[in-house]
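Practice problem 4.
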């Protein structure tokens, strides 16, 4: 059996998670050691890596930043294939949402412009965003079945929440 390809898990969190808590979550969720993880603020990346050897590899490499709008934080996690086999994108986002009692929005294989939205209880909905003026706003969220989209609810009760 071949190892899964390396992947990237990008998402938005409804709550800003302090770095120490985020680090503890990543180590636990991915089942890795501290030396296998890079975690840092997006705006400090160059400074953080200035003294790291160019050939140093991190099986898990994550940057994060605060964002304006309905979400508080953006994260981008690159992981090696053997970690993808441990924790897939949907499961990672579900664990994040339940651990930090927050919403997590991410893209997977939904039709554009739809995204997956994990609720704090771990349930999944579809959502559409508005990214005007560099703010990310949740426009719609779905809660009833949609033909052709397995396991996805939609009811239209939550429209533009601006």
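Answer key:
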């Amino acid at each position: 059996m071949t190892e899964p390809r390396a992947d990237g898990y990008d998402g938005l969190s409804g709550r800003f998670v302090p770095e120490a808590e985020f680090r503890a979550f990543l180590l636990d969720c991915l089942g890795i050691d501290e030396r296998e993880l890079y975690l840092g603020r997006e705006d400090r990346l160059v400074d953080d890596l200035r003294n790291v050897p160019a050939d140093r590899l991190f099986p898990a490499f994550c940057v994060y930043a605060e964002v304006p709008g309905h979400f508080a934080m953006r994260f981008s996690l690159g992981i090696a294939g053997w970690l993808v086999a441990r924790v897939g994108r949907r499961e990672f986002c579900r664990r994040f949402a339940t651990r930090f009692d927050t919403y997590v929005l991410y893209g997977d294989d939904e039709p554009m412009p739809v995204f997956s939205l994990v609720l704090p209880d771990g349930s999944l909905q579809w959502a559409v965003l508005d990214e005007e003026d560099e703010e990310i706003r949740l426009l719609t969220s779905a809660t009833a079945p949609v033909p052709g989209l397995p396991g996805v609810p939609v009811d239209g009760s939550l429209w533009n929440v601006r």
